Amino acid sequence: MPQLTTERELVCPCCGATLVVDLALGRIVSHGEAPSATRPELSRAEQILAEQAARREALFNQSVQDEKGKSDALSRRFEEALKQAHQEPVRKPLRGFDLD
Questions:
Q1: Which residue range is the domain that position 47 belongs to?
Q2: What is the mean pLDDT of each run of 10 residues along the chain (100 residues)?
Q3: How many domains are contained in the chain?
Q4: Could you tell me the CA-to-CA distances from 66 to 12, 55, 98 in Å, in that order?
Q5: Whole-model pTM?
Q6: Residue 70 forms part of a structural domain
């Protein structure tokens, strides 16, 4: 819909948006958004929000379970390291000037 003779309407090859360019000014005068298939419909907004809330809740519950299991795993690793430390003989630490 160019209004002036110096305006041209172009379609962006990248995103498909409609651009109106003024050739005399060398600038974009207006633009129109490209039609997008990924836009959610407003009639499904409540359903989309409910799905996202359920997804967030599931992720939260999973992270809570992971945190509970993490303390148990750390406790087991500590106990194993403690047993291993008791089994190894106590040695004098090796210092750098002892190697000379």
A1: 42-87
A2: 75 85 85 76 87 96 88 88 87 76
A3: 2
A4: 47, 16, 46
A5: 0.40
A6: yes
